[in-house]
Specification:
The complex is a heterotetramer, with 1 copy of chain A (about 350 residues), 2 copies of chain B (about 375 residues) and 1 copy of chain D (about 575 residues). With about 350 residues, chain A is α/β, with parallel strands linked by helices. Chain A contains 13 helices and 15 strands. In chain A, the strands form 2 sheets. In chain A, strands 4, 5, 6, 7, 8, 9, 10, 11, 12, 13, 14 and 15 form a 12-stranded mixed sheet that branches. In chain A, strands 1-2-3 form a 3-stranded antiparallel sheet. Chain B has 2 domains: about 5-230, Rossmann fold (3-Layer(aba) Sandwich); about 235-350, Beta Barrel (OB fold (Dihydrolipoamide Acetyltransferase, E2P)), CATH 2.40.50. In chain B, the strands form 4 sheets. A 6-stranded mixed sheet of chain B has the order 7-8-9-3-10-11, with helices on both faces. In chain B, strands 2-1-4-5-6 form a 5-stranded antiparallel sheet, covered by helices on one side. Chain B has a 5-stranded antiparallel sheet with strand order 14-13-12-15-21. In chain B, a hairpin with a 4-residue loop joins strand 18 and strand 19. In chain B, helix 2 (about 95-105) packs across helix 3 (about 110-125). The radius of gyration of chain B is 24 Å and the shape is globular. Chain D is mainly alpha-helical and about 575 residues long. Chain D has one domain: MetI-like (MetI-like fold, Orthogonal Bundle), CATH 1.10.3720.10. Chain D has helices spanning about 20-25, 35-55, 85-115, 120-130, 135-145, 150-160, 170-195, 200-205, 210-225, 225-240, 245-250, 260-265, 275-300, 320-350, 370-375, 380-410, 420-430, 435-445, 455-465, 465-480, 485-490, 495-505, 510-525, 530-535, 540-550, 555-570, 575-580. Chain D is globular and about 70 Å long. In chain D, about 60% of the residues are buried. The chains are: A alpha/beta (about 350), B alpha+beta (about 375), D mainly alpha (about 575). The interface between A and D is large, with 74 and 70 residues. Bound molecules: adenosine-5'-triphosphate (ATP) (2 copies) and magnesium ion (MG) (2 copies). One magnesium ion binds near residues 41 and 163 of chain C.
Amino acid sequence: GGSGQSPASEAARNEVLPMPAQIDTSNGLVIDGEKIADKQLLEEAKKDKVVLYSGSGKESEDLTIARFKAETGIDIELTRMPTNKLSERVLSEHGANQLGAGVVRVTDPLVAEQFAERGVYVPYKPPSYDELKKGDNVVFNDGQYLTAYYSAYAFGYNSAAVQGEDVPKKWADLLDPKWKGKLGVVHAGAGGTVTALAAFQLDAFGEDYVSKLGAQQPRIFDTTSVQLEALARGEITVATLGFNSTYGAEVAGAPLKLVVPEDGISGSFNLMGLTPAGEKSAAAKVFINWTMSQAGQKFAAAQGFVPARPGLEPTPTGEYQLPPADSEQFHLFTPEDAAQRSASTIQSWNQAFHFTG
Amino acid sequence: MQVTITNLSLAYGGFAAVKGLDLTIGDGESIVLLGQSGCGKTSTMRCIAGLEEPTGGRISIGDTVVFDHETGRSVPSFRRNVGMVFQSYAVWPHKTVVENVMFPLRMKKVRRTAAREKAMEVLTLVGLDHLAERGASQLSGGQMQRVALARSMAMEPSVLLLDEPLSNLDARLREDLRVELRHIQQERGLTSMYVTHDQQEALALADRIAIMQGGRITQLGTPEEVYASPASASIAKFMGVTNVFAVGEASGNEVHLADHALSLRTAVAAPDGAASVAVRPEDVVVRTEGSDGFAGTVEVCVYQGSSVRYQVALDGGPTVDAVCPAGPGALARGERASVEIAPESLLVLPDEVTDTPAQDEVAA
Amino acid sequence: MQVTITNLSLAYGGFAAVKGLDLTIGDGESIVLLGQSGCGKTSTMRCIAGLEEPTGGRISIGDTVVFDHETGRSVPSFRRNVGMVFQSYAVWPHKTVVENVMFPLRMKKVRRTAAREKAMEVLTLVGLDHLAERGASQLSGGQMQRVALARSMAMEPSVLLLDEPLSNLDARLREDLRVELRHIQQERGLTSMYVTHDQQEALALADRIAIMQGGRITQLGTPEEVYASPASASIAKFMGVTNVFAVGEASGNEVHLADHALSLRTAVAAPDGAASVAVRPEDVVVRTEGSDGFAGTVEVCVYQGSSVRYQVALDGGPTVDAVCPAGPGALARGERASVEIAPESLLVLPDEVTDTPAQDEVAA
Amino acid sequence: MTTVQTRPAAPQEAPLPAPSGRRRRRRPKGLGSLPLLFVVSFLILVPAGFVLLAAFSVDIPRPGSINFDLTLQHLAVFIEPGVLRATVNSLIIGVSATLLALLIGGFLAFATARTNIPMRGFVFLIGLMPLFLPSYVGALAWSQLGSPVAGLLNIGMRDLGIDFTVNIYSMFGVVLVMGMFYAPYAFLLMHSSMSLMNPDLEDAAGVHGGSTWQMLRSVTFPLAMPAILGSALLVFTHIFENFPVSQVLATPGQIDTLPTFIYRLMNASPSRGNEAAVMAVVLVIVVLLVTLGQRRILARRSYTTVSGKGLKARRISLGRWRWPLFAIALVYLLLAIVLPLAALILTAVRTSPYMQSFSDLAVPGAIDFGSFGRVLQSDLFLDSAGNSVIVAVVSAAAGTLLAFLVGYTVYRTKAKARGALEGVSMVPLAIPAIVLGMGLLWTWLVMPVPLYGTLAVLMIAFVAVQMPQGLRGIASSIQSTERDLEDNAVLHGARRSRAVLSITVPLMRVGIASTFLMLLMLSMRELTVPLFLYTSDTHILSITIFDQFENGGALQQAAAMSVIYCLIMFVLSYLPRRLGSGGMNP
Ligand SMILES: Nc1ncnc2c1ncn2[C@@H]1O[C@H](COP(=O)(O)OP(=O)(O)OP(=O)(O)O)[C@@H](O)[C@H]1O
Ligand SMILES: Nc1ncnc2c1ncn2[C@@H]1O[C@H](COP(=O)(O)OP(=O)(O)OP(=O)(O)O)[C@@H](O)[C@H]1O
Ligand SMILES: [Mg+2]
Ligand SMILES: [Mg+2]
């Protein structure tokens, strides 16, 4: 398994973000002056490998693990599947004492909470723990699980079909009659990120905005990937989009451009934690350490995520610059929101878009 | 090997095809099963071969009980060493002719070359050696039937069941094979059961004939016995006696027909329960008018090679069938004739036999 | 409808099954095709029915050319209105008995109820009315054959081809159906072609008999003609004349056998090319020793109901088959006998006929 | 071979004396079917049992938290708004696409098995080929071809100045794509059944006045009824449950279907697995009823065509229809294979997915074949391809064997368990893969055997999931061959097992090869079930490709991979195709 010599490894080394200037392994692992692992942990980790279960996008995970390998020299193995299936598997494997993963990463706060309740996650404090604690919504249950980074959700357009003046800049621009029938959205019930978006739109612009958006007769999709594909081909010209995956597609050559609207973008969580198996795995610990290190967080930012660790210098994502997590522009759908408002949000969205299901 | 069948019953779904059949075939004996279409002959054979699960009764071959409904014992077919030529041939369409015939030999672990040689011998016997390598589907009907026969002959079973094995062959081939079969059967002391609708074949092959009616055996005896004294009017009819008349009243040596104002003289006094009189067409003598006997008119006259078949409508009586030697004095249709029936050739019979023949008649 | 077949050939792959066959069946005529197993009877029928594509020749039914190799014309079988009873029955297993029989009627657009009524009538005729609703695969062999027959009878075709339609039926049923078939055929003026291996059947049903050998017709004539004067020794053998002897030398009315020091007297002078003499077993008279004729010993004696079949080995001569009336004076095995053959019953024949019978013999 | 004891037609209602307990014990009959029933039940009923439990328990019964707090509240899912409309849509799609698939499959099967259509081997391949394309790939390819704005077909027509728009995002589009991509099931099943046809039976229809069409209608197709009903059942349930096509083609056209509905249930947060299980249980009941009905219909009649009176292979001459019919097959080839593959290849080589006109392709740098090379060099791809082939071959072989044993027991013996055996074997058909995948996951996690996380567990799961397909494939051929042929071998001294091997199996060669082929392709394509069971060591191709498509950004790569995937399937299908072609001759 693993990604071996996949094209991802090339991209991870240079294209996305240049490799850190200093990687010092003389006494443990120190990257750009930040200590990631002490000598003993590093030695053990080199003999070990990280087993990562993840519910986030395959391509970004491929890039991440390739970068991790390059920076730390530690082997890592990925099993990826959609969050709901992942959750089913993790809970079942855990229940049967057969959970193989050392680190599990999910995109849904409720799922993470459930993992924590069931003991899938065990408390672990990476070296940067004190830094992390300074931020809101980064450390949960005293380190039982962490926010690795946030996914940003905004909108984008097909750059071959839309140019110059026509390019939408603000959310309100989506209501322009010229987009009627040319918009794409993923329905709000399809997952945490899209529910978050719906909640953001309701909060920031009110129900009225959402019903007007619905009246634009957008094409409604079940999954982001199908929508992205339709956008790339020009089937639709403007769509609400996940930042990271769209950026990936853009880098891969799709005629897409993203917009970072000033009146706000929606954010959702990317959470991870160490499992009981990970407790015994040095490599798993190094992976968490690295992910939450400056180097790891920068790399995430360069991929199109919003870093969770507070107090970092802004890192651009190609030509775009996402707002930091603590800015006004960034609207998070917190776990409490998710628990309390998901159902009602989806319901209002469905009504506005005349969507059943 | 002696085959003993006791009180055998078989039902398909709700339909009883065999109903309490008793039969013993002596070691090395050849029994011919005669019976109407659909009376249960094939079914009986399939039971002996172990292809159907009887709903009652007991079958033993030699000293082994191969089926017993009471104890639930049932020996699988391949251990019974019973050969069978299927009425439907059951030639394997995906094998060549010689492969079909070799199969039973290969199952007996005969080496390939030896099996082939033996198979070719049997094929020569049935006149198919030149088609040995042909696919078994690319044959004419008669040729396929011969493959089926050859296959069972090659097997050398201890009991051989033949279900109309020659029905699609021409008369000469049939005669040759009939002789060949009888030869092999007698030489090897093969116990065999043979179904045929050809009386010639039955008479030539049978040590004894079993008459089957409605799922049971109603008469069992040597060919002469069965031919000379059928046990019932229906058996008589079946044995080719076309002149069977219902009896109204019988007094001494005189019987009155039920439907016609005619009485006939018999050699012996009519027994109680006598219901019919029968006379074989060969025993009816037809002469030109004026001789003794009943007067009548020739209605049908069919040339049959060495003989002529007449139907003569007796004046005020029934129509009588007669087979007379062909010769110069033949009568034409419409001619008047006189018909004579000798009292000794008249059979006085019950309509049906209800009980099976006594088992002490059975040869060892 | 008259059926005219000209120079018909058919090959399966490389194997020629029919080779330049010529035959005309007159309107309303019934032809019986007699021939050895595998000689091409079924193939010929299939060509007429349009089920095989002949490799040469021409077939017309009535005024229509249904097949012509020259012009490539070929009328599909369902337009030929030719009925056929298959040797393999070809009863549809997924239909009930009555559905099978109704099929041709339904194809003729007869209303369902009317078709059913008619089908039941035909089923009654063949004695299967009580099984009308049974699945056609749940029948005995003979019952299936009757379904096949009923199906073709219900169709009322203009030409009816019957491929051993009665081979699996018991003698009585066969006789009844034979009579019935003849009746229908004559009444409706049905042109028909009938394959059978049963001589009785052939004689009873045929207006003319066609003898088929190796893919062509070698003799064509009324039953009496064919029986009385077979065109060749092989035909004679086929017609049940078991006593056929090769001729060594012929001088005037005397022929010398090739393999035996025996000469026989004939009624007419032996023609050129005469190769065999034949005598029917019925024409051989066997008496106790001392009478006129050749002396010999009875080797086999088989009781055949109304007759006895002997094989008598003539002293220093061949073994002769004889069929004599059964009676009190029968001879036992091993007894000495004297055998007499009348000169008029001796047939002097070529071994084979190579050319087909002249077509002017053909009835219109 | 288990020691299956065979007896023909059961005299069940016969006036038997009530069998005493002792007697029954002495009977060897049907004993062989018990281990078989055990194996099949174990493979299928345990996972299904979990699904059943999930349907009626308060919590999802996963390992570690299995309890029996039962409730009926999940049934409320049926009154949720939208269920009715989704169900009606699914039914409409299911019925019409099934008819289309049967029509296509039946036509091609008949043409290749029974007529002299030109290039029969090639036409056979045409019938088979859509199997090489997983339905989600086919749907995606068709969305690229036929989407109203940017579909390649529409672009092409615009280029040519034709004013006509194909809209694949419609009921028609969904039915067309589903019908086309499920036709191979019908094709394979009917092909094996029709190549066992006895031409005498057809000829009899001809001489008795039936035209070719009437012959087909009243003899040929009715005799293939076990295959037709069997494939109808398979195709219908598959279409009814198919998610990817609905997702790609129906959702954009705002057509709701039951599978997308179930998908949303599963995808909701928190996941509503119990409710999905309830729907699955209802589907199971429906499918079992349909299976029972089918059994009833078929039981009353006989469909044996291969008999011991010979089998003369004869092909119907199509005459002047030869080439027109061939052209119809080509149209299908074009729609189901050529166009989608062309679209995929175009996607794989095009540097930009956006295209206004075909002239865009002439721009330098617009085309780059590099993606194929990159795919072929990727370890991940090579590993998963290797795993996929191993898993597919083993599970197809095991699945065929098991299906044969079950089919034989059900249709040739009087074993008491045969009704149960058939019913159990059909269960996986009814449970949507996503739910069944969960059941399998739970099962193999709690099993005290260290199989979880190995390729073996994938194989076992595939065997279980594909049991219905295997059984239907085998059943129709078994029903075509006369049992006398096998019995005869037994009479001639062969053990039953030997008779089966040397008579029944060769006679059913075409059917067995088709079944194997079908299972092989299905295993190569299977996606949802392995998603629950694969690990990073046991990556398989279908998942790798699905991941690529899910990525959105990697479309070019995904397309290249799909094309290579099709090629692998094509190569893999060679052997069974060889075995399956040809007739009944020795
Ligand atoms: N499909 C075939 N392929 C090759 N040869 C065949 C095929 N079918 C029949 N034959 C051969 O053609 C010849 C004629 O066959 P046909 O069935 O016409 O014979 P038949 O006269 O009907 O014989 P029977 O009385 O045995 O039914 C036979 O020698 C047979 O072996
Ligand atoms: N599968 C079946 N289901 C129901 N009834 C059947 C089945 N097979 C045969 N029968 C019936 O059982 C009876 C006996 O059939 P069997 O085949 O033994 O007759 P048979 O004496 O061999 O007749 P034939 O001389 O016509 O071959 C017949 O009346 C037949 O209709
Ligand atoms: Mg029978
Ligand atoms: Mg024939």
